[in-house]
Design a protein that fits this description.
single chain; mainly alpha; coiled coil
Length: 160
């Protein structure tokens, strides 16, 4: 092989190596760019994941607070139910006492009505007895007057 051919072969080989090196450099640069994009995507995904985790924890805290509120409201509702039941029971007791009082009042009013009727009956009987007494007094007075007249007549006849 001669020197020119050797140099041509070496130069071709160097150009090939240079081309391969440039190609590899472009490939490396492309891979680095892809790696940076993937790294950014990974970092963004991690940030979203952390944000999601923080949001999940906040939501979990809200769920816990809501569950506590539900328990408190349930306890309050149970207390209200108990108070309502007690109030209903007190209302029934008051209604029973009212019914007893109304019955006692009705009985008393009936007794008062009966007493009024008895009073009216007795007043009529008293008036009737007073009329009879007045009648008998008038008859007695008339009988006395007749007796007196008879005595006067007898006296006049005897002494007269």
């Amino acid at each position: 092989m001669n020197y020119g051919a050797f140099m041509d072969s070496t130069l071709c080989s160097a150009v090939r190596h240079l081309h391969e090196t440039e190609t590899l450099m472009h490939i490396v640069q492309d891979y680095r760019e892809r790696a940076r994009r993937h790294q950014r995507g990974h970092e963004e995904a991690e940030a979203r994941c952390l944000a999601s985790e923080a949001e999940r924890q906040a939501l979990q805290a809200r769920v816990g607070a809501a569950e506590d509120e539900v328990r408190a409201l349930t306890a309050e509702l149970e207390e209200e139910k108990g108070a309502h039941t007690l109030a209903r029971s007190e209302v029934r007791a008051v209604e029973a006492r009212l019914a007893e009082s109304e019955l006692a009042l009705a009985t008393h009013e009936q007794e008062v009505g009966n007493a009024r009727l008895k009073t009216l009956e007795l007043e009529r009987e008293i008036k009737n007895l007073e009329r009879k007494a007045a009648y008998h007094e008038a008859r007695e007075q008339e009988a006395r007057e007749q007796a007196q007249d008879a005595l006067d007549l007898c006296f006049d006849l005897i002494f007269g």
